[in-house]
Amino acid sequence: MIILKYVLPVLSLLLTACSDSAKDETVSSESGNLILTESHGGGGSAWGLVECDGCHGLNSIHQQADSIRPIAQSKGYESCTGCHGTNGTSEPRKCLLCHNSTDLAERPIVEGKHGHTFISEDTEALKDDQCVVCHLASDMNGDFDPNRDLTRLKDSRQLYTPYTSSSEFCLRCHNRDHQQTGFELDVDYENPLIAMSDNYKYVDKHGEKAGTGERTYAGLREGYRYDSFVECTDCHAMHGTDNTGLIIDISKKGLGELDPEISNKPYSINNASGNNAELCVMCHQMNVLLDDAELDAGNGLSGLHKIAGDCQLCHSHGEAVQAGM
User: Fold this and answer.
1) Rounded Cα gap, residues 275 and 312, in angstroms
2) Which of 15, 158, 183, 201 could form a disulfide with 208 if both were Cys (CB 3.0 to 4.6 A apart)?
3) Which parts of the chain fold into alpha helices (H)?
4) Residue 256, phi then psi, degrees to nearest 5
5) Considering the entire predicted model, what is its pTM?
């Protein structure tokens, strides 16, 4: 499931057991786990059943969840597995039934010819089974917590330790020596897809190592500082983009710390020519305009030097030398 920004109060009322004498809280209001367990329905009497309408009437469920109730009413029982799992059956989990460009268009934005389908440069739209690789059991309460809303993956010691950020979740697959079984990346040793786990702590301005902001071309837009921790998803759109490399194609798909007046405008970002200047200019704006920095980068913003060139000819993603050069 993809993260959903609505408040979902009183989880224990979402499901009611068939028995009048028992109301099992198989959807835990304490753990935030929406996935049904083997105790579903008075000691497990409903576990393994396919037909939800045997116990749950559409008119009676989600009565205290105003944001989700209209969707459930509209989509019907077909939407149950997306939030509550398979209930021990072989039924598919249908996330995109609700998370699409029409019904939940902003939560998140699911559009564009590239998505995180686990196949490089794939142009097929995301499918439901790909959603639940990363979002196995989200609580969908509107408060994003990597350790609740993202699937737990093993760390370098092969332990299921907590995440410190959503980027750490990404790096548990994108690394050289402890990739996840079934999702191995067969690329060259220096490829950023696997090099980032090593490089992340050295990346100037992006990741754990901060830049000084004292160089000739220094300057950032409102929201980011040179000691900002920049998440992978600030620049890379998991759920859909028209850009290669999963680079966001509009500003509101990422850039979590940027001033909303800028990111929500939104500004377009196009890297079709291999130039990521339209992305870089979203955050970088020189304090003193030098070397053509007054020129439009292509999306209405300016502030980068030598704007006609490709930033990555000099600024390599993840390089640990010369402050990002």
Assistant:
1) 8
2) 201
3) 69-75, 80-84, 128-134, 146-149, 166-171, 192-199, 260-263, 277-280
4) -60, -25
5) 0.84
Helix (H, G, I), strand (E, B), or coil: what is residue 134? helix
For residue 313, the SS3 value is: helix
**Torsion angles phi and psi, residue 171, rounded to 5:** -75, -10
279-291 residue pLDDT tens: 999 999 999 999 9
Return d(Cα 319, Cα 177) in angstroms, integer. Answer: 19
Nearest to 316 by CA among 225, 192, 198, 197: 192
Q: Which two tokens stand for residue 15?
A: 């499901």
DSSP string of 156-222? Answer: TTS--PPPSSHHHHHHTTSSSS-PPTT------TT-HHHHHHHHTTT-SSSSSSPP-S-STT--B-T
Task: Give the span between the Cα atoms of 295 and 292, in whole angstroms.
Answer: 6
Q: Please write the tens of the pLDDT for every residue from 71-100.
A: 899 999 999 999 999 999 999 999 999 999
- Helix/strand/coil for 296: strand
In the block, which residue shows the tokens 């699911």? 110
Q: Which one is predicted more confidently, 325 or 241?
A: 241
Q: Give the bridge partners for 220, in sequence order.
A: 284
- Give the separation between CA 306 and CA 297, rounded to whole angstroms: 10
